[in-house]
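User: I'll paste a sequence; please echo it back and then give the predicted structure.

Assistant: Echoing your sequence first, then the prediction.
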Amino acid sequence: MMMKNALVNNICFVFFSLVIVCSCKQDSQKLTNSSFENTILEGAIFGTYYRVTYNSEVNYQKQLDSLFYVINKSMSTYQINSDISKLNRNEAVEIDEHFKTVFTVSKSIYEATKGAFDPTIGAVVNAWDFGPEGKIENLDSLKIKNLMVSVGFNKVELVNNNINKPEATFIDFNAIAKGYAVDVIVTFLEHRNIKNHLVDIGGELRASGINAKKQLAWRVGIQDPKIVAEESRGKPISLINASMATSGTYRKFKIDKSGNRYAHIIDTETGYPSKTNLLSISVIAEDCITADAYATAFKTMGVEKVKHFLKIHPELKVFLIFENDKKELETLSLNGFPEN
């Protein structure tokens, strides 16, 4: 089910960083490049940060800027003249290969999760106007019902270079964008024979080789939901030639009058916020576009459904942080998610 190999460009959007990057020793891997120096390029993109670390003295900042520009032009809902914005206004537009790739992967994961991952739910998410720790307002149920009529990625089709969709359907690749962009940068570096690199866009990560400067494996830390400061560090793991995406509900949620917590992820069947005890979901996969999408989908599925899903998807490694019935934090590693 996984989409493999050549992913050559990706998308936008805002998620707070849930992952921080460090380095740690790995005896089983050895340096494959004679130069020990890393170049680090960093800045702001897609409403978050990016940090690209690679074993080369060549500065590829201009090339990265160009890739980000193309991805934004294709799929950013925050740019009025992007292809996706025109499409959502029902204007005639031919989509590019970046859009096609993201669309195809999205369709596959939509089908695999039976709609838990759905890029057409964005309009309903916007209607709820989620903010950090906000209170649930009385949103008209009729409005939600009307919005839900246009929800369903099965209603959207890719025909050659065109997208066919109902007029009211709003497509938003926010939940898969950063992961795709990570893969695009990785492909760019690999085409230049740079084998040791770590690409991080807003906490979505893909590691290749080792940290050549320190001769250490790339290590990442999953943020502790109890400590949401930017630099807090939680469970450290080795990330070796793989991607990891982390999605959490502990920064953005609403609370009803009974004190129930609802995630900023909208249930694609009801149009209402998902009541969940899941606080953080980390997914390791071969490529970052896959990890990013599933990390979002699992938030609406809950612990038991995720456990069942992973029995038939051994290629996904997952780490869950959730509250038990006593409001205590528990963790669960599935499908061999690395312990350290």
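Confidence is low (pLDDT under 50) at residues 1-34, 131-135, 227-232. The two ends are 27 Å apart (CA to CA).
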